[in-house]
Amino acid sequence: MKKVFIDGGGNNGNSVDFFLANYPNAFEFEVHSFECHPKMYEQLKEKESAKVHTYCKALADSEGIQTFYLSVSDFGSTLNKTKITGKISEKRTIQVQAVDISKFITSNFTPEDFIILKLDIEGAEYPVLRRLLDTEVIQYVDVLYGEWHQQKLKDVTEEEHLQLVEELQEVGLEMKPWNALSRTFKL
C-alpha cells in the first residue's frame, strides 16, 4: 500500500512544504504536485526529489490542451474563464497541458492505496470532482482537502455547489479546509 499526497494547485511549492512539515508521518508519502502557471511552476520544481514529483500541468476533467487564464498581475490564474476575482483577463491566456485526474489516479495507484487529494485549483475543483464521482474513481480518495471557489464563479450556482457537496458526503468525503499560506488544515 502506497501513501500518496496529490497536490492540485501546487503554486510555488508552499503546499508541498506545508504538507511535509505538518502532516503526521508525511515522510511516508509520495507527493505529486501539479501547477500549470509557468512562473509558479519555476519555484515548485525546486521541490522535486525522490519522493516529490512535480508537473507543469493542470489537473482537470479531461486530457489535452486547455486555455489557462492569467491575471493582469501575473499571479492569479484559472482554467475557468468565469472567475470574477483575481483580476483574471480573457485577453491574457496561455495553452497548458491538462491531465485527466481519473486517468492519473487509476494509472498510478490502486484502491488500496491511501490517497490524500488537495485541490486549490481556482474553480476547476467542480469539473474535477464531478469527473471523479462520475467515473467512481472518487473511491480511491481517502481524504479530501481544498478550497471551494463557488462564490468567485459565474457558472456554478449555489444549488450545483450544494449538490456536489452532498454527493461527496454520500461517498464519505467532505472537502476539509486547506490553506498553506495561513498554515491551516484539519486532520
Describe the protein.
With 187 residues, the protein is α/β, with parallel strands linked by helices. It has one domain: Rossmann fold, CATH 3.40.50. It contains 5 helices and 11 strands. α4 runs parallel beside α5. The two termini are 20 Å apart.
Question: Could you give a quick summary of the protein structure above?
Answer:
With 187 residues, the protein is of the alpha/beta class. It contains 5 helices and 11 strands; from the N terminus they run βαβαβββββαβαβαββ.
Helix percent band: 25-40%
From the N-terminal CA to the C-terminal CA, the straight-line distance is 20 Å
Number of helical stretches of at least 4 residues: 5
The proportion of residues in beta strands is 25-35%
Structural class: alpha/beta
Query: What is the radius of gyration?
Result: 15 Å
- The domain tally reads 1
Please tell me the CATH architecture by its name. 3-Layer(aba) Sandwich
CATH topology: Rossmann fold
Shape: globular
**Number of extended strands:** 11
Which parts are unreliable, with pLDDT below 50 for 5 consecutive residues or more? Answer: none
Largest sheet: 7 strands, mixed
Q: According to CATH, what is the class?
A: Alpha Beta
Task: Give me the side-by-side strand order of the main sheet.
Answer: 3-2-1-8-9-10-11
- Average pLDDT, rounded to a whole number, is 87
Order of helices and strands: EHEHEEEEEHEHEHEE
